[in-house]
Amino acid sequence: MTDPITSALESLLHECIGDAAPGALADYIPELSRADPSLFGIVLESHEGDAYAVGDATMPFTIQSISKPFVYALALEELGLDAVDERVGTEPSGEPFNAISLEPGTGRPANPMINAGAILTTSLVDGGFERIASGLSAFAGRPLEVDDAVFESECRTGDRNRAIAHLMRGAGSLTAPVDDVLDAYFRQCSLLVTAADLAMMAATLANAGRHPVSGAHVVREDTAQHVLSMMAMCGMYDAAGAWMLRVGLPAKSGVSGGVMAVSPGQFGIGLFSPLLDAAGNSVRGVLACERLADRFGLHLLHDATSGARAAKVLEDGEVIRLRGDIDFAAAELVLRKSVERGGAPLELDLSGVTRLHPVAQRLLDAVTPPDPR
């Protein structure tokens, strides 16, 4: 029996294939222009380590700019927020990802999600690329490797990034040697991941920095909070405002077609489809996230007046008793209990529920007996 989450994702995938606007492959990095434009995968990973995957969920692609929030996390872990903030700003630039957004007089880049800020952030990580690779691998829960062909392609076509780095070096904001920093930066962007990896990495951020499967503390809770804040403000290039309005989740995209979104305390989403819009975001990935947010009430601000209430899922013999504010995480736990019982319909006691989120209602409908009337 296919669970309702996977069924919903499957339907969404097929919808977006037919409904998404035309897009184009990234061609300024020649190796990326060779991607198969038909590929499309969606993975949802709960904060407790349960994965729901459809489509090309395990097809590898290079992480590109989705590396930026994780490298920012490593810098925060080592130096702290104040020290990093002195070197890299936290304000949206409103400009393309490869814009030269530097503070006059200091050369300080606008934020760590554009190339200028990401290059400088890379320079702040002690240990260079080796530390970056091990750090991103810890988020993914498996060793990540470099795609050498994409790395070489990045090196051959990275003149704009070199220009940005030299400008920062000349202004004094970048203190490390340009060639060393760019070698590490191009390599971090060339790390191979899958949509499933992105979902796991996002779920680690959703879980306050703790890996959902291993339970390892990858980063501190405050670090995860700072990273999610930057993703919410600046993660989707110069379309970040439209994304926050329509989707309302911290997210990051990359020009290889990856999109990663985070529902704090609940789950991470990883998507891959290489056709891009004018801002450099995956057209199918963005559409899928917009529809998920609309149908399941995922926007962070969809009910700003609701107070935080604890949710409890209790087993009392054959009855599952729900208490408090029931969101995706609580309903997904009920779904797993249904699977443990062979998929049989469950008897639920909702008398103690103070609030039932739309996404939770849909999941619970799938595991309760139909109304005989």
Task: Describe the structure in your own words.
The protein has about 375 residues and is α+β, with helices and mostly antiparallel strands. The protein folds into 2 domains: about 5-295, Beta-lactamase, CATH 3.40.710; about 310-365, Transcription Regulator spoIIAA (2-Layer Sandwich), CATH 3.30.750.24. The chain has 14 helices and 10 strands. It has helices at about 5-20, 65-80, 80-85, 115-125, 130-140, 150-155, 160-170, 180-190, 195-205, 220-235, 240-245, 285-295, 330-340, 360-365, and strands spanning about 40-45, 50-55, 60, 190-195, 250-255, 260-265, 265-270, 310-315, 320-325, 345-355. Strand 6 and strand 7 form a beta hairpin. The longest helix is centred in the N-terminal third of the chain and has 16 residues, at about 5-20. The protein is globular. The two termini are about 25 Å apart. Residues about 305-310 have low confidence and may be disordered.
Features:
373 residues, alpha+beta, Beta-lactamase, Transcription Regulator spoIIAA, 2 domains, 14% strand
Which second-level CATH architecture of the largest domain applies? 3-Layer(aba) Sandwich
Low-confidence stretches: 304-309
Major sheet: 5 strands, antiparallel
Helical content stands at: 40-55%
Number of domains: 2
Question: According to CATH, what is the topology of the largest domain?
Answer: Beta-lactamase
User: What is the first-to-last residue Cα distance?
Assistant: 25 Å
Global mean pLDDT: 91
Radius of gyration: 21 Å
Order of helices and strands: HEEEHHHHHHHEHHHEEEHEEHEH
Using the alpha-carbon principal axes, give the shape. globular
Instruction: Tally the helices.
Output: 14
Q: What is the CATH top level name of the largest domain?
A: Alpha Beta
Name the CATH superfamily assignment of the largest domain: DD-peptidase/beta-lactamase superfamily
Strand content: 5-15%
Class by SSE composition: alpha+beta
Q: What is the count of β-strands?
A: 10
Major sheet: order of its strands? 2-1-7-6-5
